Amino acid sequence: MIEARILERLAALLALVALAFAAPVAAQNATSDRIAVELVAEGAPQPGETWMLALHFTPSSAEWHGYWSNPGDAGLGMQLDWDLPEGWQAGEPLYPLPQRLVIGGLMNHVYEGDYAVLVPITVPKGAAGAQAAPIGVTASYLACTDAICVPQRAALSLDPARAEADPRFDRWRAEVVPPLDSGAQFEFTPTHLRIGVPVPAATALREPHFYLGTAQLGGRDRPRYAGQQRFIREGDLLVVEMPIEPYAVPPGVELAGEPRPQAIAGILDFGAGRGVRFTAVPGDVPLEGAEPLGGSGEPVLWRLLLAALAGGVLLNIMPCVFPILSLKALALAKAGGDERAARRDALAYTAGVVAACAALGAAILLLRAAGEQVGWAFQLQEPAVVVSLFLLALAITANFLGLFEIPGMAVSGGSPSQTGSFSTGLLAAFVATPCTGPFMAVALGAALVIQPVHGLLVFTALGLGLALPFLLVGFVPAIRRLLPKPGAWMERFRKWMALPMGLTALALAWLVWRIGGSEYLALVLVLGALALGGLALVGLFQRKARSGALILGASLVAVLGLGTALLPLPLAQASSDQSLLDPVAYSEAALADARGSGSPVFVWFTADWCVTCKVNESVAIERSATRDAFEAAGVVALRGDWTQPDAEISRMLTQQGAAGVPLYLWYEPGGEAEQLPQVLTPDLLVEKARASARPR
Fold first, then answer.
1. Nearest to 333 by CA among 342, 344, 324, 343
2. Per-domain residue ranges for the chain?
């Protein structure tokens, strides 16, 4: 581990030297005055007190910059070699707030313009004070532009007997980052360093940033200085999440992990030139009920609610929702001219949709608070839920074909009831969950990490948006008058709607097979046959006006429920999907290896129950043109299959602010993740690959 870090540092220094020699004229004329330095005293030293000195740096021109103690991805921090009288001690240098400079994807912690580093000197009691011998210090540091770097070395001395107060000290003291007066704690996750810093909730934050002072993190990890940081507020606690990654090593080389540090130092930049320095110790960093902050401030709740509402409205046109639209079309047509009935049905349907979305959202938030890595549509990862949906789709298909009737439901021949409309709303919301991705990425992703109450409001807004078109039809007579008049056409329309619902049942059967294999599917099909037989018997009783149809139906539901519960747990199925891209199965280690290869990387997260995912794969991913472009550019492809629960995939989705799949990430060599649109155009991936293949 130590050897790898030494090699890494040597490589960085060699790169800096190479930059210097890349400009021969500048290198030949290099002197120690690229950034001049002077040693300045605050006044005369006093025995038994702290004497403050300052190293004042002045660049020869605006293009030169110096470095903070931890320079970041490149550069070199200042080294001081003191020559002090016996018993005198130099403390840790005190720096002003650094600045961020990103060059070629590398983040440097720098100072532009003149700056001063203060150094406290402890003067022992009984010391000669002003009569002490001269002190000396050799300062080694680096002066850089965007193109070259020149090592600097200055030997400085100061006679305490001649030290006088310098009026510039007031400004320099004011620029030093003040210490935090309360403790901070840190912990590690597989992908992040998480630090909880006590910061009053009233503190204004403008583009906050964390400067890590402790570069060696132990384990096998190194900080990703240029990675996106996340700030999460929980009352008077501000949580910082800084991404980390494993050290890149050659294949076959194993590195022994070093112990984690017992303390981590750093500076928290509030923005607008304000910040605090602190030292954190190991401890628990809570995130429950936390509210994430963006670079420009906290997410605005009303914007999230509006995005969720709009996404719910658009959800009505998605393929997996279309069969449910037929239910409501029939229900609204049956309402006819009865305005009160139309309003009641619209309200009941809306209540069902909103209740389902809120319940699913609450379940997700509760599970995540308990430590589970789940996202939207997580219920479709459970075999019992998929089987139940299959049986339900089969039953609705049979109802559409007239095999039986459901009293009070929108799909029945009679007048719908409020209970039936409410149940229809529940069904619509539940079945719609796999299709929310393209429209709900931002809103649902934020809902999973903001305050739970606000997150629940976002899920509720989604339900309201899904129900809004039918709510408007129920309450606006002008819209309702556009509906066709009730008549014989309704029965024909109902039977035609059996086709999309039957296709939905087939899709769910395919998903059952993907989850559990052929034997598991055979058992489920036996349940399906039992369901159809029982429903046919119920329909016979209904047509002959025999009593007991309701009891028979309830018994059938109980039997099917028991059968679903008694199904054996399906064995995990190895992914058998053949892909033109020959992707590597996603894991955090596989992603680290791919990014360390120096090639472009494409990662896509999918699931068998995600309709949008399958459409994207057909339209944009599984194409010979995409394969050829990837081969020409040397793109490494990774696929994350979220059909069944996967903690690593869930963590990555959360990291990227995604509530679920699909998610598409593109990594340029040495760059950070770029999220691609959730609805892919046919040539998008081809264009990305060709752009990566061009000489840079």
1. 342
2. 2-175, 184-293, 301-566, 584-693
CATH number corresponding to 584-693: 3.40.30.10
Task: Please give the structure tokens belonging to residue 390.
Answer: 């299959």
What is the bridge-based pairing of β-strands 636-641 and 601-606? parallel
Q: Strand locations in 123-220, DSSP E?
A: 135-144, 149-158, 184-188, 192-198, 209-212
For 12-41, the pLDDT digits (tens) are 444 444 444 333 323 223 345 789 999 999
Other beta carbons less than 10 A from residue 576's beta carbon: 7
Give me the count of residues in the chain. Answer: 696
Would the pLDDT of 94 be above 90?
A: yes
Which H/E stretch holds residue 323? helix 322-335
Choose among 640, 513, 514, 540: nearest CA to 585. 640
636-641: strand order across its sheet: 584-585, 636-641, 601-606, 663-667, 673-675
Contact 600, 669 (CB under 8 A): yes
Contact in structure between 280 and 264 (CB atoms under 8 Å): yes
Contact 107, 225 (CB under 8 A): yes
Inter-CA distances, 65 with 31, 100, 147, 205, Å: 15, 11, 11, 26
Structure tokens at 330: 């029939």
What is the homologous superfamily of the domain 2-175 according to CATH? Answer: Thiol:disulfide interchange protein DsbD, N-terminal domain (2.60.40.1250)
CB-CB neighbours of 20 under 10 Å: 18
Lowest-confidence segment of 299-303, 544-548, 641-645 by average pLDDT:
299-303
Bridge partners for 294 per DSSP:
297
CB atoms within 10 A of CB 539: 19
**pTM of the predicted protein model:** 0.48
Helix axes 452-475, 339-369, angle to 10 degrees: 160
Percentage of the chain lying above the pLDDT 90 cut: 20
Q: Are 41 and 32 in contact (CB under 8 A)?
A: no
* b/e code 505-527 from CB counts within 10 Å (16+ = b): bebbbebbbbbbbeebbebbeeb
